[in-house]
Amino acid sequence: MPPDLAAAAAVIDALPYETIHGSVAGLGGLGVTLEGFGPLAAIGDRVRLEAPNGISILAEIAAFRDGRAEAIAMGPLAGLSDGVRAVLAPRPALAVSEAWLGRVLDPMGQPMDGLPAPVPGARPRVTHAPAPPAGQRARLGPRMALGVRALDLFTPVRQGQRLGLFAASGVGKSTLMAMLAGGVEAEVIVFALVGERGRELREFIEDDLGPERLARSVVVCATSDTAAPVRREAAYAAMTVAEHFRDQGRQVLLLMDSVTRFALALREIGLAVREPPATRGFPPSVFTELPRLLERAGPGPDGCGGAITALFTVLVEGDDHDEPIADAVRGILDGHVVLDRRIAEAGRYPPIDVLRSLSRTAPAVLDPHERPLVAEARRVLSTFGEVRDLVRLGAYRSGSDPVSDDAVRLAPAIEAVLAQGKSEPSDPDQAFGALAVALGG
């Protein structure tokens, strides 16, 4: 660019932006009715509500009705009143940089770890971005060691795959996430803690993650007491951070806890703008937004070289694995892992129900000598599940069925292979070697 044009561009960039403002015409719950913006505002824009007493909060426009905009507040409405000035603010964007590694941030990129704000990157990224074009995406990469024997054996994962962890509350989901953070060979780890309990943030970072893993991680957190748009934005912000490092050609591991709380935040927003509830109170927009978020994970465009391998936790209500969110997510992802409360109560951790877990890439991942081992182990565990109650009651008589006899003899050894401590290292070769020994009797 010629020097005179560059100087002119710098002067123009330094000029203050024109302020576009309206006013509040109604308040209630999370909803804010705005007027005065006309065609200058759009769905997804943010507005800053400025009360005369100095109170200022953000709200996001979610709908238009009868010439007025309906927004959802991103903070408490206490202190605001009718007629308050509303100023149009920039759309959500994050200027991710290398300085974000090792940091704990909120969905707006502000620090939650007591340290100064990280140095921003050169180019802000829009958080609500589309997924890469399907026809231009690279294919999944090679097998990725997860460091958890039950997963490496029965639900193997390729680089760029998306896997769901389905569990009820208190079954051991956070412990499994910590094992994955330490066992997966990823260059960058991005954690999305959506609707997390406030007291658990430091426990997770200091006890489960630790300084070494945190140094190559970015943690994006929105606690359960934040407004629904903030909790929803945590998922989009974490995905944006992961995309930044993926586009640099890095292998990224994205761990999101949980998709269910993301969906609950979407439900709050939908109901606040009077969207009709459909399936179990979830409005249709929830099932539109889920694939828009989840499809962004995976391999980048051809030539990028990077990929986002993503594991999304799904909290199943009342141990119902067919509830709407679980059913929708299972249909989008490339596999699912089921954590069972009964296995946890029996004392085996991680409590993964391998018979109900599935990886859609397993046929392309397992070597020819590994497939028969997995098939035989599934057959043994399935048969043992049929006679387990008889064994416990003392009603089982050996010799009546050779297949059942083998299952009763071999199942305990397979269960021992599946049991693993949180800090116990493992790799696929070790896991298949231990499984072969167990099946050998």
Automatic annotation (TrEMBL):
Keyword Repressor: no
Domain AAA+ ATPase, residue spans: 159-344
Source species, domain of life: Bacteria
Main localization category: cytoplasm
InterPro entries listed in its UniProt record: AAA+_ATPase, ATPase_a/bsu_AS, ATPase_alpha/beta_chains, ATPase_F1/V1/A1_a/bsu_nucl-bd, ATPase_T3SS_FliI/YscN, P-loop_NTPase, T3SS_ATPase_C
One Pfam family this sequence matches: T3SS_ATPase_C
GO MF term list: ATP binding; ATP hydrolysis activity; protein-exporting ATPase activity; proton-transporting ATP synthase activity, rotational mechanism
NCBIfam families in the record: fliI_yscN
Designated name of the protein: Flagellum-specific ATP synthase
Organism: Neoroseomonas lacus
Source lineage: Bacteria, Pseudomonadati, Pseudomonadota, Alphaproteobacteria, Acetobacterales
